[in-house]
Design goal:
Layout lengths: L5 H14 L8 H8 L3 H13 L3 E4 L5 E4 L8 H9 L21 H19 L2 H5 L1
Antiparallel strand pairs: 1-2
Helix pairs in contact: 1-3, 1-4, 2-3
């Protein structure tokens, strides 16, 4: 079971690099070289992040990407949800129509408690916090 996918991991790593110089626009090619990530892959991640309001872009000479808001306002869970969808630790393996016990399942109840705790921790964890 993976909690963080490759897309999320690379996106968070790249966002941390952008956060180190928040007033600068950084070219994808430069960042891809520094992070040893495929240029095309990083560009695709950045386009997705721009679409969701995490990054802004500028075209032309001196263009590139920059954070759309301060790193302290970008939560890790937000990046996870962009690339992975909602956090679901307690999602039942058996659909409700098939299993009549989903409402009273002891395991599901515990997993939902863990999910709420994990979600709260990931909401509190920001890109800025990862820089320290």
């Amino acid at each position: 079971m993976k909690l963080i996918t490759k897309n999320t991991d690379y996106a968070i790593t790249a966002l941390c690099e952008l956060a180190r110089e928040p007033d600068q626009t950084t070219a994808v090619s430069k960042l891809a070289r520094e992070l040893k990530i495929s240029h095309a892959f990083l560009r695709k991640l950045f386009q997705t992040l721009e679409k969701h309001g995490i990054l802004t872009s500028r075209k032309g000479k001196g263009g590139g990407f920059a954070l759309a808001r301060p790193a302290a306002q970008i939560a890790v869970i937000e990046i996870m949800e962009i690339f992975q969808g909602p956090l679901e630790v307690g999602a039942c393996f058996i659909r409700t129509k098939v299993c009549p016990h989903t409402r009273h399942c002891r395991l599901r109840g515990r997993l939902m408690t863990i999910e709420r705790y994990l979600a709260a921790q990931l909401k509190a964890l920001t890109i800025a916090a990862l820089l320290d």
